[in-house]
Design brief:
single chain; about 160 residues; alpha+beta; about 35% strand; globular
Length: about 160
């Protein structure tokens, strides 16, 4: 498998569909998240990023909520974006795709004038986000039956 890939903002319906395919494979297929809660109203207005191999294969995705869409997840602070739905396909893990996606989301947040990014990390992924500069806060909570912690990074 080629390890060459690019990370870009999802521009059109085909890109968004590729994002959803990755999310379905990882969250619904691997982690057992019910499909009816994996996709939500935020998908329509979120900024989605996509990691794609030269042959067009989607390797990973993530999304950024900002403005009013993020307020419910960030305590109402409109200067904070919400990173979510970060997923990397099994075949692409270990290639740096996740970190590249987070970087692209942070760049998009900075471009929109945001001061920080929040996320809800599955507890097994805390180390990954900590290495990227995120700090956990608050109590552990379940989401789709999976333990999570809130994390924040000041940009």
């Amino acid at each position: 498998m080629s390890t060459e890939y690019v990370v870009r903002v999802a521009e059109d319906a085909a890109d968004r569909e590729a994002c959803f395919v990755v999310r379905k494979e990882v969250f619904v297929g691997e982690q057992g998240v019910p499909e009816d809660i994996e996709y939500d109203a935020y998908d329509a207005t979120a900024l989605h990023v996509l990691a794609v191999r030269a042959d067009g294969t989607a390797l990973g995705t993530g999304r950024l909520l900002y403005g009013e869409a993020a307020a419910a997840k960030t305590g109402g602070d409109l200067t904070v974006g919400s990173l979510g739905r970060l997923a990397v396909t099994r075949e692409a893990r270990g290639l740096g795709v996740g970190a590249a996606l987070v970087g692209a989301i942070e760049d998009a947040a900075r471009a929109r004038g945001l001061a920080a990014v929040d996320l809800h990390a599955q507890t097994h992924a805390l180390g990954f986000y900590e290495r990227l500069g995120y700090v956990a806060y608050g109590p552990e909570f379940p989401d789709a039956g999976i333990p999570h912690l809130a994390m924040r990074k000041v940009l």
